[in-house]
Amino acid sequence: MGKRYFCDYCDRSFQDNLHNRKKHLNGVQHLRAKRLWYDLFRDAAAILQEEQTKKPCRKFLQTGQCDFGSNCRFSHMTEQDLEKLSAQVQGESCSKQ
């Protein structure tokens, strides 16, 4: 059977050779899973700043779903979500002082 490579980001394994590993690591699915993983550890201030620069996603506001999901270039946060995030950032800045 040979060696197998397990990708922690994608939670999948495949036969380990140079071609397969290179193909997987450059694939859209892997890059998306890796970005989602690292987004979990971003601080609230960075997320708030990024979301405030984006325009709201009309499709998400109308239906509650967006075909692009996390790849959408528009914000999927409501006003209430932004307020909660802003309060969290203020709380974190107060606790650091």
UniProtKB/TrEMBL annotation:
Taxonomy, superkingdom: Eukaryota
C3H1-type domain residues: 51-79
ZnF bounds (C3H1-type): 51-79
Pfam families assigned to the protein according to its UniProt record, in alphabetical order: zf-CCCH, zf-U1
Molecular function as annotated in GO: zinc ion binding
GO biological-process terms attached to the record: mRNA processing; RNA splicing
Gene3D superfamilies noted in UniProt: Classic Zinc Finger (3.30.160.60), Zinc finger, CCCH-type (4.10.1000.10)
Keyword Zinc: yes
Record key words, sorted: Metal-binding, mRNA processing, mRNA splicing, Nucleus, Spliceosome, Zinc, Zinc-finger
Keyword Zinc-finger listed: yes
GO annotation, cellular component aspect: U12-type spliceosomal complex
Subcellular localization, as worded in the UniProt entry: Nucleus
InterPro entries: U1-CZ_Znf_C2H2, Znf_C2H2_sf, Znf_CCCH, Znf_CCCH_sf
Protein name: Zinc finger matrin-type protein 5
Organism classification: Eukaryota, Metazoa, Chordata, Craniata, Vertebrata
Gene: Zmat5
